[in-house]
Structure formats: structure tokens, C-alpha cells
Design goal:
This protein has 17 helices and no strands. It is mainly α. It has one domain: Growth Hormone, Chain: A. Helix 9 runs antiparallel to helix 16 and helix 12 runs antiparallel to helix 16. The protein is globular.
Length: about 450
Amino acid sequence: MAFGAGGFSSAFIMQVFFILVYPIYQVGLGLNPGWLGWALTAPRLLDFFIDPIIGNFSDNLSTRWGRRRPLIMFGAGFCAMSLPLLWMPPSHEPRMMLAYFVVMSCLYTFGYATFEVPYTGLGYELTDDYDERTRVLAWRMYMGLAGVLLSCWTLKLCFLPIFGSEVKGAPWVSLGIGLCIVIGALVTVLGVKEKNLKRQPEVRVLEAIQLTLKNRPFMKLMVVNMIIRIGIVAIGPIIYYINAFGVCRSENFQASKDFASQITGLSGTLIVLASYFTLPAAVWISKQGSKRFSMGLCLAVAALGSASFWFTLDPRWPYLQLVSAVVSSAAMNGVWLLMSSMVADICDEDELLTGMRREGVFGASYSVVEKLAGAIATGFGGWLLLALGYDAQKALGGDVAPEIISRMKAIYVLSQCGALLVAIWLIASYPLTRARAAEVRRLLKEREILHS
């Protein structure tokens, strides 16, 4: 539970950022969506360079408090302080707003990387057992889902009458969220003891990256990871537009936005509650067979849920979309859990090949793929809105034509389904099975006995 508390902080750090960025900067402040899309790409590209450095630094760090925990606490504190400032541009002139957002989001990303990479590495090294890894990492998901549950209502809280508008409410709401981020990280830092590993030779960053790229199971898993994230993350923000300008539309545009934010909150709440059932199911199915089979099943269920949005995104029944959201997203939480557990298994195979424990670098590499996919997705997503015919200035008053909403709906459904089907095909040939993982643990144990 102490380890899982860090997942509570992690969920807040990035969920709140992505939940608020388009409603505040684009819908609230009128920033061009194409500009905002490219602005969101900048911090993701920064991650591409800093995550491996932080991961390798964490692997080689030696302090009285361990090699992971000091970085976890620093990163969480940095994010807590900078989150409210993200929504406080000193000028509403478009270019000034854009420049301010790029700088602040890059600083925020640095703090997140300093927290997330060591925290992920800490989870990989807590246990050596094939099945127990999934159960332990599930606690990160359980606690993280509580953070998601609360963060889903962030936008709704920003609309409280006391603030006057969502733009003025965002910094105040973020102050409370920052406190939650610090508390979760503090529980992890104080409650988890790191393993006392023997001192290992320091490896330079480029050499560490080269060794990681040679690991075939890891590279295959990361291709699956990138395809899913591009297919889902690139299209994800469009659901707010479909709701605000279409499904939840009323004569009062402010009321339409408020209703859309309520749908977002309800959706997140139900997804979290459903995930508390689907995650133990994914763990159980994995234990009966393999992680590969369990992941394939979760991907198939998610694809069915995504396909059903074609029928449930309907203005006549605005709440019906919650069924599709729950099915698809709850199943995807099972995918993310199993993928993390697979990376922990890969760390064992890497130790067999290199003789070193490099959870930090693998956690960083996983994070790089996640954020690189996010960079591609967000950069593409902003321009996709323009390609579909969306006009940011007209939209300030709620003027978006029904045919544009129809195009958004089509691309939203087809993109997600296509990505998930390709992922199912690729994961079917994932090579690190239960039998191979057991063989790797046996060989490592024999080596340990021989050296002792």
C-alpha cells in the first residue's frame, strides 16, 4: 500500500494536466488548437532526452536513503509547486500565452520525470516472483485509480460559481491537488524500504540505452505500447469536443461545457469503480495462464468497448456513452498493469545477459515510449481538429457545425479500434512466456549461488 501511494500522486500529476490543458488554454482562453498541439509536443520531446539520463542516474545513485526515494520526493514536490502556475499566464496575448505554456509545461515535465522514472524502477525491483510482480504492481493501479477518480472531477470543480470561470478556478483547484501529490509521495518514501543491492559498475547513458535497445522482448512490447497510445491518446481529447458541441449541446454554451465536464467526471468515476473489478480479474487470468493471454483478452474487450461508441455517442441519450467508456477504459487499465509486470520480467532477462540490475533505465525507456507517443499524438491531435474543419474563434461561442462533430465521432471510433486490433496481433507472438521467465529465474539463482 505504501508503494501504491506513489501511484496516487502519479495519477494526479499527469491526469490533471491533460484534463485541464485543452478546456483551459483552448476553449477557455481561445488559443489556436494547432499551436497548442505543437506546444504540447515540446515537453514530450524533452522527455526523450531527460528520462534516460534520470533513469541511469537513479540506477547508479547511492545515498543513505537509497537510489530511488530521494528523487521521488524531489520530483513530487516540484510538480506540486508548479501545477498551479501552469494555468496563470501573465498575458492573454496569444503568443505570450503560448511561450509561457511551453516553458512551464517543460519545467513541469522535468519534475514529473524526476518522480516517475525512479518510482517505476522501485516497483520493478520489489519482488522476483512472476505472479507476485503483477499483484504488487496492481497496488500502484489500485491507489492510482483513486487519484484518477478524484482528478476526473477537476474540470467540474473549476466551474464552481465561487471562481467565476474555469480559467480562474484552475489555479485554486491545482493548489489542493498539489497537496495530494506531496502526501502520496511522502507515504511511499517513508513506507517502502529499498533492496540493498551490491555495488555494480557504472554504465554511461548511451551504453545503457544501447543495451536496452538490444532486448527483443522489450522492444516488441514497446512497439505495442506506442501503437496503443498513439491510437488512443491522439484522439482522446476529441471526446470533450464531441460532448460540448454535440452530444451535450444546449442553447447556453457555458451550460453545454459544464454538462460535458460532468460527463467527464461521471465517466472517470465509473471507470475507476469498474477497474477495481477488472484489475483483480486480469491478475487472476494471468496466474491461470500467462500475461500474454491475459493482455490479449483485455485488448479485445477494450476494442469492443471502443467500437460501441459509434452507437452510444448520441444526443438523445447522452449518458449512454458511459457504458462504452467503462468497458473500454477499465479493460485498458488491465493492459497497462500487465505491461508493467512484463517489463519487470524483462529486467530479469536483462540481468542474465548483462549481469546488472537496470530497472531505472527500463522504467525510463518505457516512459520515453509513452511520452514520445504522447508527443506525436498531441502534436497531431491539435492539427487534426483543424483538418476536420474546427474553427477556434467560432467555437468560443459554441458554433461548430453538426457535420464536423460527425467527422470527429468517426475518427474517434476508427482510430482506437484500429490501434487495438493491431496490438492484439503483435502481442500474440510476445516471446517471454511463463516458462521462459521461470527458466531465467533459475539461471539467475544458480549464478548467485555460484558467486557466493
